[in-house]
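Researcher: Quick test of sequence recovery. Tokens follow.
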């Protein structure tokens, strides 16, 4: 039979063994901070910002819109020519008879047409024997012969001509040839100032030479764009100054 002190000692040993066992189980099942994996900040940054996107670059240069237009918008002009026949043709500064003549397309000469006016009545050509210079010739004349389809040519704008005028400051009526237009005397202002196209004219005294205008040589005038030609004498030696303000 076990004595009482021995029982007490036995129980104490059992208690100690039990606590030791429980302590071992707690140590195994409770992980420490060092054993728990924690996602690093570096890993998150790598995943959110792939390096490969910043290193991709195109290996070619795409064609620009300008280079495409340069190819597609370069039309080939149709072959159109104009030839002077039956005489010479004035080449003018612009597309109209109110522009100065700047050269001549002589009879038999042919020029390649580069453009036309919007009404298809004047053609834009290089001036023969004058490299880099251009002018206009009329199609509304018996002195021109056109080959080709002018309506397929590009329209060229030549702007506006500068008006030219003849002012009669004399005391007689004057007639301007070859147009046959009579200019009233100076006392009939402003009707004594008449607009004309640039060109060569002959001014004759209409009052004194009505019966024989063909023999009345008159005054030759080469009228130019922007010019105001003042006629101060005709038929007599007297000079007639144009009134101030005219």
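Model:
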């Amino acid at each position: 039979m076990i004595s009482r002190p021995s029982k007490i000692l036995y129980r104490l040993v059992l208690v100690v063994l039990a606590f030791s066992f429980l302590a071992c189980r707690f140590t195994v099942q409770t992980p420490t901070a060092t054993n728990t994996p924690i996602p690093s900040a570096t890993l998150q940054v790598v995943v959110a910002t792939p390096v490969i996107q910043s290193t991709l670059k195109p290996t070619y240069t795409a064609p620009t819109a300008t280079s495409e237009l340069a190819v597609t918008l370069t039309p080939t002009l149709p072959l159109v020519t104009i030839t002077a026949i039956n005489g010479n043709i004035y080449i003018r500064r612009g597309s109209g008879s109110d522009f100065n003549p700047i050269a001549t397309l002589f009879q038999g000469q042919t020029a390649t047409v580069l453009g036309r006016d919007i009404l298809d009545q004047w053609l834009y050509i290089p001036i023969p024997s004058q490299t880099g210079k251009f002018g206009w010739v009329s199609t509304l004349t018996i002195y021109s012969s056109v080959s080709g389809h002018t309506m397929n040519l590009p329209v060229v704008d030549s702007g506006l001509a500068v008006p030219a005028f003849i002012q009669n400051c004399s005391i007689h009526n004057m007639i301007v040839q070859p147009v046959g237009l009579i200019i009233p005397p100076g006392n009939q202002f402003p009707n004594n100032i008449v607009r004309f196209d640039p060109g060569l004219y002959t001014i004759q005294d209409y009052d004194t030479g009505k019966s024989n205008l063909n023999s009345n040589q008159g005054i030759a005038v080469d009228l130019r764009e922007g010019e105001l030609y003042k006629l101060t004498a005709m038929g007599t030696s007297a000079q007639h100054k144009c009134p101030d303000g005219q």
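The helical segments are 4-29, 41-48, 52-55, 65-72.
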